[in-house]
Structures are given as C-alpha cells and as structure tokens.
Amino acid sequence: MKQVSQIDRKAYKLAKAYLPSLNISGVTAELVEKYISPLSLPPKPTTKNELYRRILVSAQNAGMKDKVIGKAIGGVGKLSVVLYGFDPKKVLKKYDSWKSIFHQIKKQLKPRGKVRRTSRGIWPNYCRTILSAASFVEQFKSAGDFYKWVDFFDQDARARASLPMLIDQEIKDLGFALSCDFLKELGYINFPKPDVHLRDIFTGLKLCGDEVDNYQLFKAIVRLANNAKVSPYNADKVFWLIGSGNFNNHPNIGRKGKIGRKKKEFIKYARSKLYK
Fold first, then answer.
1. Cβ neighbours of residue 12 under 8 Å, at least 6 residues apart?
2. pLDDT at 72
C-alpha cells in the first residue's frame, strides 16, 4: 500500500511539471495552475433551465459527439429555440417522444453534415437524452433543491460514486463518465471524469488495471488524488491537459489553444521515472 501511495504521488508530480517542461510558448506552471483550479469554472447555475442546459452540454462532451452535435448546429446553446429556452417543463409538455424532438431539430436548426436517422445514431440518442434529462430536472423544485440532493451524496465518500450511477440511470445515453463531467463542471470537485485520456495514461502507467471500467477508473483517480493530497478535480485536469493538449481558454497558445496530445510521450517519460 505504501508503494502505491508513493507511485501515485510521484505520478501526479511528474504530470503537473510535464507540460511546462516542454518549453511550449505560453505553457507555464502558472497557466497549468489556473486550469487545475476549480476557480476557473463558471458560477453554479441558479435556475433549473441552466441546469438542464449544462446537462446537455456534458452529454455531447465525448468522442465525436461534440462535432456531430454541438459543432453541427453552432453550439448546444442553439437548441434553445427548440427547447423553449431550455425550459424542461415546456419541453415535456411539447414533446412526447425523441422522434418529435429530432424532427424539430432537423427542421429548425438543420445540422450540418450527415445526420443518421437510425435509432442508435448519435442524434437519435442525444434526443433521448434531451427528453429524459428534462424529466430528471423536473423532479426538483429548484436548482437549490438539486444541490441539496447532490450534497447528500457528496458528503459521504462511501456513497459518492453512486450518484453518477444514479444520474446515468435517470438520463438515457448519458453514461457514468459524462454524469461525472456534468457534476465536475458544476464545481463538485470530488467527481473526476474517467475519460479516454485518463484511461490511456492510467493504464499506461499501471496506475490501474488494463481492463478497468469507468467506475474503477473513477476510483483510481480519486485514490491518486487522495495520495497526492489534491482534489480529484485537480488530478483529473492535470492528466487531461496532457492527454488532450487543449488550453481552450487561451487561443493565443499553440493553434487556437491546442498544443497537440502529449500522452504517448508522457507515458514513456513517466514510466522511466516511476519504475526504474
């Protein structure tokens, strides 16, 4: 156990120092510090409408989804026209199926690119998310009521991971990882997103098993953060920056904020340091 703690601490330290060590113009230790701080997040929503919108932003924050959905219509915010300003109550009153939402999106927003009509295509799945997310949000009297519910789980480390599992069951096609993303981006720092970048780095550095599921990866990120004495949000962002190479809030860096993915190089470098 002591060896695991030592490896976790060293892996975090190596990760935090890695990008500034590459001498990329503008990428400094101070910049990395800004990105790993939850202070960089926007304020928590104060309305159910904004909570609903945040869910739909996270719901397309994986793989090709952001290109097929968000970028195809000019951003998730454009859905406001179809979703009555992201009013979940009005959405439920207007639409009785994902197909009716799908029809209105095609009619009013005219997504660019190929829009697959098959029932398991990205857009049909996303429309299921839109409808079930509206039902989920409508369970709560207010945004404050929702936060009380989240706090109930967040205050107990033993119960914490069950919250994204529950949200995954409530909202169709969202999944455990994107449920964590939604909570993390609200400022709940104990919910790291077990995404593909962290999976590649954690398995590559033997910080978890090769066949871990999202829940097990979530637990591994939390374990490393605890051993490194930082928040899971902090640890998530340190490794995510390496994996994605995305400094999206600083378009002056690299090519419009993108410096290229550095995870393969980092894994090779860090393994030589961790397992001499």
1. 224, 225, 227, 228, 230, 235, 238
2. 85
Question: Which of 77, 81, 83 shows the shortest CA–CA distance to 127?
Answer: 83
Cα separations in angstroms, 196 against 58, 95, 144: 15, 34, 32
SS3 (DSSP) at 205: coil
pLDDT at position 257 is: 94
Residues 6+ apart with CB under 8 A from 164: 176, 179, 180, 183, 191, 218
Q: Which one has a higher pLDDT value, 61 or 117?
A: 61
Residue 15: strand, helix, or coil: helix
Is residue 154 within 8 A of residue 190, CB to CB? The reply is yes
Question: Where residue 61 falls among pLDDT bands split at 50, 70, 90?
Answer: confident
For residue 255, the cross-strand partners are 258
Kindly list the domain boundaries of the chain, sorted by start residue.
2-41+191-274, 48-185
* Phi, psi of 164, rounded to the nearest 5 degrees: -60, -30
b/e per residue 197-236 (b: at least 16 CB within 10 A): bbbbbbbbbebbeeebebbebbebbbbbbebbebbbbbbb
* Residue 203 pLDDT grade (very low, low, confident, very high; cuts 50, 70, 90): very high
For 178, list phi and psi in degrees, rounded to 5.
-75, -25
Rounded distance between C-alpha atoms, residue 271 and residue 276, angstroms? 8
Instruction: Express each pLDDT in 165-189 by its tens digit.
Output: 999 999 999 999 999 999 999 999 9
246 backbone dihedrals φ, ψ, rounded to 5°: -110, 110
